[in-house]
Design brief:
The chain is an alpha+beta fold. The protein has helices at residues 4-72, 79-106, 121-138, 158-175, 206-209, 227-238; strands spanning 119-120, 142-146, 153-154, 181-188, 192-199, 241-245, 254-261.
Length: 279
């Protein structure tokens, strides 16, 4: 039912299609490379800026903090000035924390090679929880650790793992209202060590989920927008992955799952979300 001319035209088009598809693929790869290059250049600029800020601000901030702490220890300091001095100290600590986040994001991470770096994620999670527990207790927030398998040894340095878990757990604590709950679950398989941090806060909208890993994106009034960006970058450098699930139940809650390559494993496999506990 197809004429010879029509058949020839269709045959010619079919011969051209692979070339067109290859051209589209090459264009997409070129655009991706250009985006990656632009991102690397931007991060290099951020790194230079962070180093400059650190050099020019950290030492003066440290001196100011030391002077204020000495004044706080003086019994002659009036009560009215004591409360204001404490507020200034808290703001200095907040500024120092933002500087540290900027430095963490700008400096390159060190990936473990041939199993050279390893740590027990269970012990790191317990250490981080103990550090953050005071801030949680002040607001009546319950931080629960669940680790049925005991040790969870991952192919990542302890300092890097501490940075990752600190950022995610602090985000969870800040996300919930007073009296809320944060649950940290750990489990390990032959190839993967996973940490799931869940909170019963308001959750993350679908629109924001596509943006939360971007540097400097934040919905907090005093946030830097670098916490999850640092986490995602450090995980990628270690060969791990990050997953976000929100809401968890009743239209609320957020779960951040961190998948680390297990120590001595050749690759990291991603298992399904664990069953939710009633506790």
């Amino acid at each position: 039912m197809i004429s010879g001319e029509t058949f020839a035209a269709l045959e010619f088009l079919c011969e051209q299609l692979p070339g067109a598809f290859d051209l589209c693929r090459l264009i997409e790869e070129k655009l991706q490379l250009e985006r990656d290059l632009a991102e690397r250049e931007r991060l290099a600029l951020v790194g230079q800026m962070a180093a400059s800020i650190s050099h020019n601000l950290k030492n003066p901030l440290g001196s100011i903090k030391t002077i204020l702490q000495v004044q706080m220890e003086s019994p002659e300091l009036p009560a009215s000035l004591r409360s204001e001095t404490q507020m200034v100290l808290e703001e200095i600590n907040r500024l120092s924390a933002r500087l540290n986040q900027l430095l963490q994001f700008s400096r390159p991470g060190v990936r473990a090679g041939n199993g050279a770096q390893t740590c027990d994620l269970a012990r790191v999670a317990e250490t981080v929880a103990n550090v953050l527990r005071h801030a949680a207790d002040e607001r009546g927030i319950t931080v629960q650790l669940a680790n049925p398998n005991g040790e969870a040894r991952a192919a990542i340095g302890e300092e890097v793992a501490n940075d990752i878990l600190s950022n995610v757990m602090l985000n969870a604590i800040e996300a919930v209202t007073d009296g809320g709950h944060v649950r940290v679950s750990l489990w390990a398989s032959e190839k993967t060590c996973s940490v799931l941090v869940e909170d019963d806060g308001p959750g993350i909208s679908e629109t924001d989920q596509a943006k939360v890993l971007r540097p400097f994106f934040t919905t907090k009034a005093r946030g830097s927008g670098l916490g999850l960006a640092i986490v995602d970058r450090r995980l990628q450098e270690a060969g791990g992955t990050l997953e976000i699930q929100s809401p968890l139940s009743g239209g609320r809650g957020t779960g951040i799952r961190l998948n680390f390559p297990a120590f001595a494993a050749k690759d990291a496999a991603t298992a399904g979300w664990p069953a939710q506990s009633d506790s």
